[in-house]
What does this fold into?
Amino acid sequence: MADILFLAHRVPYPPDRGDKIRSFHLLKHLAERHRVHLVTFAEGPDDLGHDAALGRFAASQTVVRRAKPHAVAAAQAILSGRPVSLCAFDNGRMRDAVRGVIKREPIGAVFVFSGQMAQHVPDGGPPLIMDFVDMDSAKFAGYAQAGRGPMQWMLAREARLLRTFEAQVAARAHASLFVSAAEAALFKRDTGAARVEVVENGIDTAGFAPDAPFERPGLGPVSIVFTGQMDYRPNIEGVTWFAQAVLPRIREARADAEFVIVGRNPTQAVQALGRSPGVRVTGAVADTRGWLAEAAVVVAPLLLARGIQNKVLEGMAMARPVVASAQAAEGIDHCGTIAVAAHATGMAAAIVQLLADRARATTLGSSARQQVTARYGWPAAMRALDRVMAPLFDTPVQERAA
It folds into this structure.
């Protein structure tokens, strides 16, 4: 058993959104094999008060409050020539906390979750495992392509500077981890990094199961459900596109169809969609499983997506028919158990067909659950992490230090 410093950009509990789900399962898995020291940011009250829950996995935990306004981070980025993403998470207390743990504890490795956090790890310290999850620079490059004027310039600048930073971090890391083979290949191509590994997302297939105990919200029989964090740009753009370009086509055939947007922190733009015919915005819900279970169709209409989408895996695990954009489906080995559409007309047609043919919808959902259970359970995903970590602990920490 060795000591590992686990550094995360957001408190990895409760595991109720994409990044927290992944970071929680990584933390939990590492804690089953090592002593883990957690250092993480808290963004608000919801991130606090989880000491007892995290104490089941972390030998020690340090939570640093982060409340830097975006405008301040942007100004710092322009003045310093750095990416906004890094300036937003640049924090002296976090650096001190990291150095403090490395000084106090016999840290054998530093596991960093999310690229913005690598700036807090001092050079020349213990071996670094960098979980980029997705390639953020590619995400901003995608934003830039759709941008205009000064915003396009700013997004292109962010993509360029982040790519340089990502390459620098990868050069000093024992391994750089990505959530899918496609992301890993893109990273290798764009940065020239050599030590790149894939550790996929998984899913709790016992918890996300049609027969698991959960409350049901009582949706209508023609409910089309989307779940996600609703202040996250790709989710906002995806549901806006669906409500404006896809749903009207569906309602031409099924006037009773309702698009249900489920997720916390809906922006004003998302809330405004709720005033459109056939659109419902729930805000935060205690448990998304009931909403998924009652969906006639689960949709993932993302226009920009990286890696493996938990929302797709969750819909599959709940044995619901899933219709996804090509972007949302790209990283998932679904073997044809979800419907994939390249444009608004195709997505609307796929959904209308499933609404009309409930037997086919049931068969597709059952096949999806079989596929996700066989392919994406967390134990299978974590075996890849074990292979990455094993070379670091072939000898005791003290011997390596000597």
Remarks:
- The chain has two domains: 3-202+378-401, 223-375.
- The domain at 3-202+378-401 is CATH 3.40.50.2000 (Rossmann fold).
- The longest strand covers residues 35-42.
